Amino acid sequence: MKELKLTTVQEFDREDLEAGKAKKRLFIGLVAAAGTAVTLFLVLVLVLPIIGLRNIHPWAPYIFSVLVGSLILLVVWATVGLVLSILFGRSLLLFSRMRGLTIKLFLPLMILVGKLLGIPKDRIRSSFVKVNNDLVGRTDKRFKPGELLLLMPHCLQNSRCKMRLTYSIHNCKRCGKCPIDSLIGLSERYGIHLAIATGGTIARRIVVQRRPRMILAVACERDLASGIQDTYPLPVFGVLNFRPHGPCLDTNVPLDVLEQAIRRFMDPRWYPENRPVDLDKMRLVKGGGQSGREKKTTRAG
Ligand code: SF4
Fold first, then answer.
1. Are residues 146 and 288 in the same domain?
2. Which residue minimizes the CA distance to atom 6 of ligand 1?
3. pLDDT band at residue 258, thresholds of 50, 70 and 90?
4. What's the domain range around 273?
5. Is the peptide bond before 233 cis (omega within 30 degrees of 0)?
6. How much distance in Å is there from the Cα of 294 to the middle of ligand 1?
7. % of the chain surpassing 70 pLDDT
8. Which range in 153-157, 199-203, 230-234 is most confidently predicted, on average pLDDT?
9. For the chain, which terminal residue's Cβ has fewer other Cβ atoms within 10 angstroms, N or C?
10. Which ligand 1 atom minimizes the distance to the CA of 162?
């Protein structure tokens, strides 16, 4: 097997870093463009009626000016606040409370502006997910395994597999022919509930039933962006899936990225290496601790 050189790995890292920066730049550019467009529109709303408002009441133009001026300030504050927050990790006064609302408001606007500029929706959504992850990642909160939820798309399952996983992930025979096997291994190792959703409705139902405090979700740009919006104020860390066979067919998941995210948000006291041994023993006694591949290896050994 061809050995992977350190320089090649460094090159991948550099490319990855640059791609991340480009995504951020796109988000910032679109936020600024959307904010400017709204501000210009409001300035127009402010200027035009003044000419006619004087005829209604001598004070009417001033009252109207204060109202629209406040709206302009609000939009500028939200735009600048979001851009500063993304760039420097700092929040303007009260801005942290407005983060979700601003993101909810800005994404449709950004998609609109992007459409006018001919930027594909998925690029904007991917940029949105990247920025969302940055903002979510600033929390100091750490969670217990039971407070986290791993939410996966149905398209990760091998398209020829007949097992029904939506109602129970444990219907999987763990044959290793798709990433579900490794994901079950990951969920068992960290003690986090793993669920598969066939669409937004099922995903919402799972979230309502499980009541997690944070979701680690794998999906395509569209589903991640809408999921992040739908579940607000619940924080969602999004991981984009791989689609080597095109959309929605035998997709894959970067397990290392997902595991890093788990360790980033989980209280280190609950890491597998820090947990009391009997927890692992109990899990194995229940019979769910080994993947098909692991079982085969154990038997062979
Ligand atoms: S690991 Fe095997 S049994 Fe489980 S979902 Fe994938 S293909 Fe089906």
1. yes
2. 178
3. very high
4. 141-300
5. yes
6. 15
7. 77
8. 153-157
9. N
10. 8
